Amino acid sequence: MLRLALKMLYGDRAKYAMLVGGLTFCALLMSQQVSVFCGLMRWTTATLRNVQVPIWVADAKVEQVNEVVAMRDIEVDRVKSVPGVEWAVPLFWGLLNARLPDGSFQAVQLTGLDTATLVGRPGKMLAGRVEDLRLPNAVIVDQVGVKKFKKKGIELKIGSTFEINDKEARVVGLCQSDQSFLGQPYVFTTYDRALEYAPPQRKRLSFVLVQPKPGVDPATVVETIRAIPGLTAYTSDDFFHRTIDWYMKNTGIPISFGTVVVLGIVVGIAIAGQTFYLFVHENLRFMAALKAMGARTRTLAAMVFLQAFAVGLAGYGLGVGAAAMFGFGVLKGGEPPFYMPWQVPVFTGVIILFICCLSALIGLVKIIRAEPAVVFK
Amino acid sequence: MNEPANGHQSVAIEARGVTKTFGTGDSAVAALKGVNLDVRFGELTMIVGPSGCGKTTFLSVLCGTMKFDGGSVQLFGRDLAAMRDAEVTAFRGKNVGFIFQQFNLIPTWSAVENASVPLLLAGASRQTAEAAAQRLLDEVGIGQKRRSYPTELSGGQQQRVAIARALVHEPRLIICDEPTASLDAASGHHVLELLQKIACRPDRCVIVVTHDSRIFSFADRIAEMEDGQVKAVHGRGEYHAQYV
Ligand SMILES: Nc1ncnc2c1ncn2[C@@H]1O[C@H](COP(=O)(O)OP(=O)(O)O)[C@@H](O)[C@H]1O
Ligand SMILES: [Mg+2]
Question: Staple partner for A132: which of A172, B25, B94, B108, CB 3.0–4.6 Å?
Answer without folding.
Answer: A172
